[in-house]
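Project standup — Tuesday

K.O.: blocked on the structure for the chain from last sprint. Re-posting the sequence here as requested.
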Amino acid sequence: MVENQMNKKVGIKVIVGMVLCLSFLLCGKNMWNTGMLDVYAETDATGQWEYVIWNVGDTEVDISGYNGKETVIEIPSKVDGYTVTGIEEFAFSGRRDLKSVTIPDTVTGIGTEAFSDCSGLTSITIPKNVNSFGILVFAGCNSLASIVVDEENKVFDSRD
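H.V.: unblocked you, prediction finished:
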């Protein structure tokens, strides 16, 4: 009887998963209609940067991924004419090849586990305008030896 109930729960989860996948396919690969927001995922003209537009007409975006081959990167302050103001959850997660990241002054927030498991990451530069971090942003970054926070940052400090 317990096994029967577990099988039903697994079956329901599989059906829900299939319905969600079908919904994404029918709505188009680059748009999710959440009822409150229209979220658009895009890749910039160079093919290197993935970003999220939260609402039609927005001029600001969040970086959601990196497809480039460089290991020392400087996140751009603009992609495809949009101002980059955030780094999404898990945006660089698992990129073990990254060595160094510089974040532009336009960014104000860094999402949960944005750089988690970037085991090759040795240094990161945080600009003056970053005022929020998600949790576990640098979890598993065992090689991280240098976090430099801009001296003008009013929330975070990297001295000592």
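K.O.: great, moving the ticket to review. Residues 19-36 have pLDDT under 50 and may be disordered. The first helix runs from residue 2 to 27.
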